[in-house]
Automatic annotation (TrEMBL):
It comes from the Bacteria. Keywords: Lyase, Magnesium, Manganese, Metal-binding, Plasmid, Riboflavin biosynthesis. This is 3,4-dihydroxy-2-butanone 4-phosphate synthase. Its EC number is 4.1.99.12. It comes from Roseovarius rhodophyticola. Pathway: Cofactor biosynthesis; riboflavin biosynthesis; 2-hydroxy-3-oxobutyl phosphate from D-ribulose 5-phosphate: step 1/1. Catalyzes the conversion of D-ribulose 5-phosphate to formate and 3,4-dihydroxy-2-butanone 4-phosphate.
Length: 220
């Protein structure tokens, strides 16, 4: 599909794309960069022009290589159900978060700036590409400024969130499946940017726009 090929080429060239999920899900659009191409300008773009907290999406296999579970999985296995951790982690109907830990690269001063945020992401991407996951704790510390989100093992056969949509897309397009994303927030209303306004924003910037419906048709 040409729209997918164009979007994959943009990501590979260091440009962002926009990804909308579904009207009956979150009805949100992510601004997304490929992690291996991230720099301070891209981090600034995500923080200033999208607006929601910046997050890094990694595949289930990457999470396993790093020895990481989602936060909810970790708490369910290690915390007393009556503790505050257990109480806060009780399921909410319709809410299925895949958040894991937050981290920073150990050589950063704080990890907060655009420059240091970009470095943390690039260093993690390089670690995962090198296959040296055993150095994870040596090179990174937690908690930090970069939230990790781990895709579900079965991807779109198991869950159809933004994480699984972009992971399935990246894998099938031959891209390294680690991305940096932020949801688009309307600065005037304070709510998520509407589909129509996200499309207009993408057209104004010349960004490729892909949607969950099309992705599910091809990869679901």
């Amino acid at each position: 599909m040409k729209m997918f090929e164009d979007a994959a080429r943009s990501l590979a060239d260091g440009k962002p794309i926009l990804l909308y999920d579904f009207d009956d899900r979150e009805a949100e659009t992510d601004l997304i960069y490929l992690a291996e191409n991230i720099d301070e300008r891209a981090v600034a773009d995500l923080r200033l022009n999208a607006g929601a907290p910046l997050t890094v999406y990694i595949s289930w296999d990457m999470g396993q290589a790093l020895g990481l579970d989602t936060y909810l999985d970790f708490v369910s296995e290690n915390a007393d159900a009556d503790s505050i951790y257990g109480a806060l982690s009780k399921p909410t109907p319709g809410f299925d978060p895949r958040f894991s830990i937050t981290l920073d690269f150990r050589e950063n001063k704080t990890g907060c700036s655009h420059v240091e945020t970009a470095r943390t992401i690039r260093e993690l991407c390089a670690l995962l590409k090198s296959g040296d996951a055993e150095k994870f704790a040596e090179l990174f510390r937690a908690p930090g400024h970069i939230p990790l989100i781990i895709g579900s093992k079965g991807l779109l056969k198991e869950r159809n969130g933004h994480t699984e949509l972009i992971m399935a897309f990246a894998i099938n397009q031959g891209l390294f499946p680690m991305v940096v994303a932020s949801e688009m927030i309307d600065a005037d209303s304070g709510h998520s940017t509407s589909y129509a306004d996200a499309r207009k924003y993408g057209e104004k910037r010349g960004l490729d726009f892909i949607g969950g419906i099309e992705l599910m048709e091809v990869y679901g």
